[in-house]
Design brief:
Layout lengths: L2 H14 L13 E3 L9 H4 L9 E4 L6 E5 L5 E3 L17 E10 L2 E8 L21 E9 L4 E12 L2 E6 L4 E6 L9 E2 L5 E2 L9 E5 L26 E6 L6 E5 L7 E6 L9 E8 L19 E5 L16 H8 L8 E7 L2 E6 L5
Antiparallel strand pairs: 1-4, 2-3, 5-6, 6-7, 7-8, 9-10, 10-13, 11-12, 14-15, 15-16, 16-17, 17-18, 19-20
């Protein structure tokens, strides 16, 4: 096996099993090690160990040195902020979490979140928009890996708010979560002190973006209107992972100082449009999973789940702390984490991370 075929097979396997990956920078939308064949170095052909040194590598799209990579790797960038999409709208900034929806025959399709927190208005055509006042959403991107070029980038969800992360589903769609909660009629203040007055609908929900960019429940594009999966809760959504064996969706909440870990049990296996119930993880004997624990790697705890009666309760106090779902679960014994982030499902196990993990 040549160095190039080995590298491509390794990356293909890695990409096909990756649920999501992203960047807070609007410029980095990269697939490394893909493209035309590269002549295998003599060292690799002879079985010698490859160099792990990083060297400056030029982006095949712009000609700029954006990354340092191991020898023999190459990359190309695509769907930069400010570029025109297929429908004529402009690619927004804030590229973040994305899912690899399809990979094969030298081509790939990604759905990428655009994390806009303010209210500049929907960036794309109205048939893709949930709230015409909100600026976030998703862009669906097709790339030719062999040619190292963008095929097409198009809007697939618009009018949402602070779409940070999400997760890929086994049936070929992308779950995109809003990380900023806005109750109906609530006016937030931007980081530069201006009121956000353009929001027309509540936010803090999870949306499903099919691989083709249109929700099957939307009808024709002219009559389309994206709807949130409100049963998944109104909270500061971060990532999602679907257990393919059960169809259950596991959800992290990126809230500080207190956040919960949730699961959504759909009413119908293999889809989410029929609704379902939301539950929060509880750990027997303690509700504090942030600090003061004498726990080592491999420690085990007994757990159970508590029901969230009203998943659309945005806040439960005057501080409007985006804790409506959490406080319902906590009152029933739910466990307290802080700023839960990435999540991954493998063979019946769920792994997730906490920014403020404590001890």
């Amino acid at each position: 096996m040549t160095e190039n075929s080995s590298r491509r097979r390794f990356l293909g396997a890695a990409l096909s099993t990756t649920a999501a990956f992203g960047s807070s920078s609007a410029i980095i939308s990269l697939l490394s090690g893909c493209g035309a064949a590269v002549k295998a170095p003599e060292a690799a052909a002879s079985g010698a160990k490859m160099s792990t040194a990083l060297i400056e590598a030029l982006d095949a799209t712009t000609g700029k040195a954006l990354l340092k990579l191991p020898p023999g790797f190459r990359y190309f960038t695509f769907a930069w902020a400010g570029e025109r999409l297929a429908d004529g709208s402009v690619t927004p900034a804030g590229a973040d979490g994305m899912g690899l929806i399809h990979y094969g025959a030298g081509k790939a399709r990604l759905i990428r979140n655009q994390e806009i927190w303010d209210d500049p208005g929907a960036f794309a055509l109205h048939e893709y928009a949930y709230d015409l006042g909100a600026g976030a959403g998703t862009v669906t991107i097709d790339v030719d890996l062999d040619a190292g070029k963008l095929i097409q980038a198009r809007a697939s969800l618009a009018g949402t708010n602070a779409n940070c992360s999400g997760g890929r589903t086994p049936w070929g769609s992308w779950l995109s979560g809003e990380e900023q909660v806005v109750a109906d009629g609530e006016v937030l203040i931007t980081s530069y002190g201006a009121p956000m007055t353009k929001f027309q609908k509540p936010h803090g929900f999870m949306f499903e973006v099919p691989g083709l960019g249109l929700n099957s429940a939307m009808g024709t594009p002219a009559a389309a209107s994206f709807r949130p999966i409100i049963e998944m809760g109104q909270m500061r959504h971060e990532a999602a992972a679907v257990d393919p064996a059960t169809g259950i969706v596991y959800l992290t909440e990126d809230n500080n100082p207190a956040a919960g870990f949730y699961r959504f049990i759909p009413s119908k296996l293999g889809g989410l449009s029929a609704g379902g119930k939301l539950e929060m993880l509880a750990v027997t004997g303690t509700q504090e999973l942030r600090r003061g624990m004498d726990a080592r790697a491999g420690s085990k705890f007994k757990t159970h789940w508590v029901s969230i009666a009203d998943p659309t309760k945005a806040h439960t106090d005057s501080a409007r702390a985006s804790n409506g779902c959490f406080n319902q679960g906590f009152a029933l014994g739910g466990a307290t984490f802080s700023r839960l982030e990435g999540i991954y499902c493998r063979a019946g196990e769920i792994f997730f991370t906490s920014t403020n993990g404590g001890a």
